[in-house]
Amino acid sequence: MSKPIVAIMYDFDKTLSTTDMQNYAFIPNLGMTPEEFWGETGKLSAKYEVERILSYMYCMLKFAKEKGIKITKEYLKECGKDIKFYPGVTTWFKRINDYAAERGIKVEHYLVSSGTKEIVEGCSIVNEFTQVYGCEYLYDENGEACWPKMAINFTQKTQFFYRISKGAIKPTDDAGVNEKNLDRRVNYKNIIYVGDGMTDIPSMTLVKKSGGHSIAVHPKESKDVVQQIYDDNRCDFIVEADYSANGEMDKVMKLLIDLISAQEKLERKEKVLANK
């Protein structure tokens, strides 16, 4: 009998990494501060009513061109090498996988980010994920970014809950995600969402209402944003973004794995008894 699957969906910026992924290398390479860059993307959105994700993707290309920087996949991946993570992140995945395996559970980790996928592909933890979903560029015949290939805003993140559940992993597999199939690869109740803020609310709410679990993480110095999310009943837990062994995040995730393991065992027992 195959092991039940638990899918953990993560936001990236300020959930696993300590700030927005562009802030580490991409924006400094432009000779700008993060405040200047994100301020300009906000002005563009306000002036022309450009969707905010498309606005930042446009500004990345515009400002890089002005600086004479060619935006290629290789360049963006290089910008991912400087990403810094919250405590415990680099050892988190193996630790959780091993704990779950001891309880008869297989864990799969999925990244669902409104950040730049190509930057994520250059970071040290990219291979920990079963699949990385993020904003991507289309590249011309010279290998330079020329157009958005994929843009994922906070509401569009919710589609990946269904894709992961059904096993329609490719983001362009519309037939697979819309196909009527009651035998889901990952049960809704076995999905856990981890995010940090307002842009994660639709996904947190969807996962929670569907029987799964949502965790809102916060930096040590402040939890005002996630406290409001919790008070509004949009997540199950608020935890400091410290993924170290025996920390609160570690304990909460292991408790959820224990719970899912127990539920799976009870369901299998019920089926055995029903068929006697």
Described by strand count, sense and barrel closure, the largest sheet is: 7 strands, mixed
By CATH, the architecture of the largest domain is named 3-Layer(aba) Sandwich
Low-confidence stretches: none
Total E-strand runs: 7
The helix/strand class is: alpha/beta
Helix tally equals: 11
Distance between the termini: 19 Å
Percent of residues in helices: 40-55%
Query: How many separate structural domains?
Result: 2
Give the class-level CATH name of the largest domain: Alpha Beta
Q: Can you tell me the overall shape?
A: globular
Plain-language structure description:
The protein has 276 residues and is of the alpha/beta class. Helix content is 42%, strand content 17%. The chain has helices spanning 26-29, 34-48, 52-66, 73-79, 89-102, 117-120, 159-166, 174-178, 201-209, 224-231, 248-274; strands at residues 5-10, 106-116, 131-139, 145-150, 191-195, 213-218, 237-240. The longest helix has 27 residues, at 248-274. The radius of gyration is 20 Å and the shape is globular. The mean pLDDT is 94.
Sequence-ordered SSE layout with sheet pairings:
Layout (H helix, E strand, L loop, with lengths): L4 E6 L15 H4 L4 H15 L3 H15 L6 H7 L9 H14 L3 E11 H4 L10 E9 L5 E6 L8 H8 L7 H5 L12 E5 L5 H9 L3 E6 L5 H8 L5 E4 L7 H27 L2
Parallel strand pairs: 1-2, 1-5, 2-3, 5-6, 6-7
Antiparallel strand pairs: 3-4
Helix pairs in contact: 2-3, 5-11
Quick summary of this structure?
The chain has helices spanning about 25-30, 35-50, 50-65, 75-80, 90-100, 115-120, 160-165, 175-180, 200-210, 225-230, 250-275, and strands at about 5-10, 105-115, 130-140, 145-150, 190-195, 215-220, 235-240.
